[in-house]
Write a structure and sequence with these properties.
364 residues; alpha/beta; 7-stranded mixed beta sheet; 3-stranded antiparallel beta sheet; 47% helix; 20% strand; binds nicotinamide-adenine-dinucleotide; binds glycine
């Protein structure tokens, strides 16, 4: 079993292996988790994994309750927040009790938020069941719900006490959802470089792969390092948003018909091309990054016009006055945050998109 220790407001372990959910009760005891446990999960995940987790916790002597939400982003809202808080109050959970987030990023984000505000803060354990949640959202303590006005607008930094990642959970993931996680893996590989990048280049990264534990652990290790040096995203943590600025525009302009992962992958192509046309990245290195994205068969058509990206930059959270922060790969394992005037964005994106188009034509 791989173990990554994360130093946070309090230190916590991320455990990664196949078959861990069935052992979670024993692990809770080893980690000195006491009190009662309430599992927050959702209707797609519950039939696969709730019973296993419940059984293991009960066998280890815990009193266990559970609440099952509707699946998907529609549960990351004020209504579900109220529903969970009321449930906890009726169940009489107190400050020494623990919540479990059993699900993908949606369940992780809302459960973390509830844990942060119920009785002014109680412990919670992340049990990510999607690849995205395993490599990204379960680590780092960002919690949130969406408001009618926008995504992730209410939340707090509240770190879990433990993360239990059972790689077997990915066996039941629809391929499309698994790919969303792969986009975040590739993002992390570009940021971290080194062995993770080489591993992703060489390995088949499907959910049966022997390399999965190494790959997920390497992603978590990288994220842990970044988060430890910048808990609240004042600086270096912003790098984790590589590819996400154009991705948010692509998702929005497609009316959310393009998934987050496929939008992030397009954003990775675009930012790599931008760095190349700005002469900040060699063609050889750009090709290694494109090669990894190509290998995963991600799309590289931007769907939006350069003009539309520039228009949307006006509304971006990362806009500072007349400029916007772009995260650009200047090498593999060497991404930087660059302030770019919004007036230059259209020309820059246009050049990058032309380059991608020509590259595509050449390879046909
Ligand atoms: P999700 O939780 O909605 O899961 C995606 C889909 O997979 C859902 O339909 C779900 O029911 C299903 N599912 C989950 N586990 C399954 C399993 N093992 N088998 C079969 N089906 C399963 O979405 P996600 O992609 O995991 O996470 C996206 C969310 O994470 C977004 O709300 C995003 O804002 C958030 N996020 C948070 C952070 C952070 O740092 N907190 C980082 C990235 C993303
Ligand atoms: N998902 C980006 C972060 O945790 O900062």
């Amino acid at each position: 079993m791989a173990k990554v220790s994360v130093k946070g407001t309090h230190p916590y372990d991320v455990l990664v292996r196949r078959g861990l959910l069935g052992e979670c009760g024993k692990i809770f005891r080893q980690q000195d988790i006491c009190g009662n446990v309430c599992i927050v999960t959702e209707e797609t995940v519950a039939p696969f994994y709730l019973q296993t987790v419940q059984k293991s916790l009960v066998e280890a002597g815990y009193n266990v309750s559970s609440i099952v939400l509707k699946p998907g982003e529609c549960s990351k809202n004020l209504m579900s927040l109220q529903q969970i808080l009321s449930f906890l109050a009726k169940e009489g959970l107190d400050r020494k009790d623990t919540l479990v987030a059993l699900g993908g990023g949606v369940i992780g984000d809302i459960t973390g938020f509830v844990a942060g505000i119920y009785l002014r803060g109680i412990a919670y354990v992340q049990m990510p069941t999607t690849l995205l949640a395993a490599v990204d959202s379960s680590v780092g303590g960002k919690t949130a719900i969406d408001l009618p006005e926008g995504k992730n607008l209410a939340g707090l930094f509240w770190h879990p006490d433990l993360v239990i990642t059972d790689l077997d959970c990915f066996q039941t993931l629809p391929f499309k959802v698994y790919r969303q996680g792969m986009a975040e893996v590739v993002k992390t590989a570009i940021l971290a470089g080194g062995e993770l990048f080489s591993l992703c280049e060489k390995a088949t990264c499907d959910c049966d792969s022997d390399m999965l534990e190494t790959m997920v652990t390497a992603c978590v290790t990288y994220k842990a390092q970044v988060v430890e040096s910048d808990f609240t995203e004042q600086g270096v943590r912003k790098l984790l948003n590589l590819g996400h600025t154009p991705a948010h525009v692509i998702e929005k302009r497609s009316g959310y018909t393009i998934s987050h992962g496929e939008a992030v992958a397009r954003g990775l192509y675009l930012m790599t091309a931008v760095a190349y046309v700005r002469n900040e990245l060699s063609e050889e290195t750009a090709e290694r990054i494109f090669g990894l994205l190509d290998k995963e068969k991600f799309p590289d058509d931007m769907v939006c016009l350069a003009k539309e990206f520039a228009e949307e930059a006006q509304y971006d959270k990362k806009r500072k006055g007349d400029s916007i922060s772009l995260i650009l790969p200047e090498g593999i394992g060497n991404c930087v945050i660059k302030e770019v005037p919004i007036t230059e964005l259209e020309k820059l994106y246009d050049g990058a998109m032309r380059y991608l188009y020509e590259r595509n034509n050449k390879s046909r």
